[in-house]
Amino acid sequence: MANNTVRSTIYLDSELHQALRVKAAVAHKSISEIVNESIRESLREDEADLKAFELRAAEEPMPYETFLAKLKADGTI
């Protein structure tokens, strides 16, 4: 284990734990590696969402009726 790791106790559903054990065995990885990878990916998704919000923060608000008309006009709905 790397020196910059922290030990943490988490509680998993037994079925989820079993699935993780199987995946770890098949992938020749530890459960910790798989959990760390999953958490990193989840946080990257959040980071992308936050970046999108930041990029759109300067946009002017649009009334619902205008937004709905725009969606209808471009064929989205």
Question: Which tags fit this structure?
Answer:
single chain, mainly alpha, 3 helices, 77 residues
> Residue ranges: pLDDT <50 for 5 or more in a row?
none
Name the helicity range.
Answer: 55-70%
Strand content is under 5%
According to DSSP, the number of beta strands is: 0
Q: What gyration radius follows from the Cα positions, in whole Å? A: 21 Å
User: Which outline best applies?
Assistant: elongated
What is the count of DSSP helices, taking H or I runs of 4+ residues? 3
Mean pLDDT over the full residue set? 92
Q: Main β-sheet: number of strands, strand sense, barrel status?
A: none
Structural class: mainly alpha
Tell me the distance between the termini.
Answer: 52 Å
H and E string: HHH
Number of domains: 1
InterPro entries: Arc_rbn_hlx_hlx (IPR013321), Ribbon_hlx_hlx (IPR010985)
GO biological process, one term: regulation of DNA-templated transcription
Structure description:
One of its GO terms (biological process) is regulation of DNA-templated transcription. The chain has 77 residues and is mostly helical. The relative contact order is 0.06. The protein has one domain. The termini are far apart.
Write the layout of secondary structure elements.
Blueprint: H1 14-27, H2 31-56, H3 64-73
InterPro entries: Arc_rbn_hlx_hlx (IPR013321), Ribbon_hlx_hlx (IPR010985)
What's a concise summary of this model?
This protein is an all-alpha fold and 77 residues long.
